[in-house]
Amino acid sequence: MGTSRATAVLLAKELRLEFRTRELLSATIVFALVVVVLFSFAFDPTAAESRRYGPGLLWISFLFASSLMLNPSFARERLNDTIDALRMSPISPFAILSAKMLANFIFMSVVEVVLVPVFSVLYDVSLAGVAGRLILVLALGTVGLTVTGTVFSAISSHARLRELLLPLLLLPILTPLLIAAVEATASLLVEDPVLDRTWLALLAGFDIVFLTASWLLCDYLMEE
Amino acid sequence: MKARYASTIFAAGLIFFAGYAALFIAPDEKTMHAIQRIFYFHLPSWIAMFTALAVAFVANVAYLATRRAKWDALGVSASEAAVVCCTIGLATGPLWAKPVWGIWWTWDARLTTTFILWLLYLSYLLLRGLLDDPERKATFSAVFGIFAFLDAPLVYVSNRLWRTQHPQPVIGGGSGSGLDPGMGRVLLFCVIALMGVMIIILLDRYKLEKLRQEFEELRLEYETLNLESASTGKERP
Amino acid sequence: MPATHYTSAVAARSLGLSFTGVEKRFGSFVALRGITLQIHSGEFVALLGPNGAGKTTLLRIAALLASPTRGTVQCTEGAKSYEASDLREAKRQLGMVGHSTLLYDDLSAAENLTLFARLYGLDDISARVSNALKSCGLDSRAESLVRTFSRGMRQRLAIARALLHGPRILLLDEPAAGLDRQGLAWFSGTLERLRKDGCTVLMSTHARNESLELSTRAVVLAAGTVQDDSGPQGDPRPLLASWRAGA
């Protein structure tokens, strides 16, 4: 069976599983909201300076939320050894990996769709006029986040202390993404929004590098 | 055995003379004076670190391609050596920064990149510690090592674009760069000394890892022979 | 289980399994030492042995879930054997029932079977799935989530899942575990039909199991090596009897 069809079938399974229980999604959204609110206690959101920190706080809450959300991605497949069932099927290992990447991208996007309006209200930032460009930045950032996060979820699902290991592996790798995403977001949330091409290029570059690396190394990830 | 002693003494000698050279032979720098001498250890540790990282990357790729255990041994040795050199760099940096810039630390491109790399390769070592099965350990840490190495230039570029406070490159940089030949000679000597130390750490660790692998092989052979000589119908405990 | 639901390319092939010098190590633990075994098409091999003998490891390697530390395992079709590039084709011929159910608890019985039918690229999926569920007696619970099933029901569904794509080589790891009397009767009947159809079966079993009567060959594994083998032409009954006596 072709890889794209297998990916589609597996993606449908991932979505069906998650939307049936919605446990992970709701927990992640609530956690991200808690982080945003906690930040607003640590930094008074009405002060002008906090507006400067806003984009950073937004992306940090996405990162924290994703660290929680990405772990079960592969850890769930250890229940009843369903990962073995997938590996025995006549499909490419990349289909398994990319289905999970796509599913995680969709779930993170749902979290972001909820969080960004809350953020704009709490930090009194207007999103009018920049929505399109903001979506582009969010999308590129989320791709990098979910690609690397899914790969590391596969790795850490075999290790001890996997809940701690995943953020430990993921967050240092994501620093370029964090810088680029925060700067790009910040440049959009000011008086005169201008989307800096450099940051977009960096985000796109990050995505391409790690997507390619995942594709090349995917057989090793899906081994026993 | 003799070779190990000889090489260790040689490296110790190099470091001793490098230290002597840095402190007494090198000419005095006009703005920073004595503190600047840390530069003779600081910069070489960077060079040694990047060399070790490059070796680790090659070893990781080679392991995935060939599945020979020696590449895994080289990968972990090079990564550990890199972490050591990185620690030296991160420790000597603030020692210089405080008297010169007045602050222990600053988030400029090079320092931040080094810090992130330090964290990344520490995570690599942690990952290895948390994976039990040796084959899985080798495979997954190789994959992570490759990701970490690919990330390094991205980290540097992103930090560079973001801010720069480091002294402008003194060697091979723009205008105003160039090194006094006296300093240049001492620097070269120190680079060699620190590279020597890094290589010795790496090779020692590599030998240790290979010994460990050999020990496992011998133990398995012993167990097999033991089982075969015992009664065949015996049940495994 | 209707044995005629094969995809057109697969019908009535004779497939065997060949292990050559297979060794499997997990760190310092050696599960299998130098196993060389030829299983010819149509054989029904009972894999006997105490716990820890390496039966599960051997089956997992046969299922292409694990690769041997040394040695090779191949699916053989007459004289030809599947190369690594044909791995997907080889997977189509393999069906495994393992220690775990390999089922998604949060999907219904029908959804589980449909998922795997799709992944195996089968045609006429809804008919196949409903036939499979009817055959194993779960059609009344087709839409219920697997997490609501009893142990026996899950095992039946696990077996149905393994057989859905009409594999020619069956790898069964204690498949009767957890089956109730009805389930056992269905399973024995199914196995008998599959054997008549010429499927190759490698079944590991620890407890007394009626299906052992169907076996054409007995292989005893102990401490990771083949201790005894009744051979492709031989009679497995003496080995089975002494195994039963000892077990």
Give the secondary structure arrangement, pairings included.
The complex is a heterotrimer of chains A (224), B (237) and C (247).
Chain A: H1 3-21, H2 23-42, H3 48-75, H4 82-88, H5 93-122, H6 131-156, H7 162-173, H8 175-188, H9 197-221
Helix pairs in contact in A: 1-5, 2-3, 2-5, 3-5, 3-6, 3-7, 3-8, 5-6, 6-7, 6-8, 6-9, 8-9
Chain B: H1 2-25, H2 39-66, H3 69-101, H4 109-130, H5 134-162, H6 181-229
Helix pairs in contact in B: 1-6, 2-3, 2-5, 2-6, 3-4, 3-6, 4-5
Chain C: E1 16-26, E2 29-39, E3 44-48, H1 55-62, E4 70-77, E5 80-81, H2 87-93, E6 94-97, H3 109-119, H4 125-135, H5 151-163, E7 169-173, H6 181-196, E8 200-204, E9 217-222, E10 225-229, H7 237-246
Parallel strand pairs in C: 3-8, 3-9, 6-7, 7-8
Antiparallel strand pairs in C: 1-2, 1-4, 4-5, 9-10
Helix pairs in contact in C: 3-4
Please tell me about this protein's structure.
The complex is a heterotrimer of chains A (224), B (237) and C (247). With 224 residues, chain A is mainly α. Helix content of chain A is 81%, strand content 0%. Chain A has one domain. Chain A contains nine helices and no strands. Chain B has one domain. Chain B is globular. The C terminus of chain B is likely disordered. With 247 residues, chain C is an alpha/beta fold. Helix content of chain C is 31%, strand content 25%. Chain C contains seven helices and ten strands. In chain C, the strands form two sheets. A six-stranded mixed beta sheet of chain C has the order 6-7-8-3-9-10, with helices on both faces. A four-stranded antiparallel beta sheet of chain C has the order 2-1-4-5. In chain C, a hairpin with a 2-residue loop joins strand 9 and strand 10. Chains A and B meet through helix 6, helix 7, helix 8 and helix 9 of A and helix 4 and helix 5 of B.
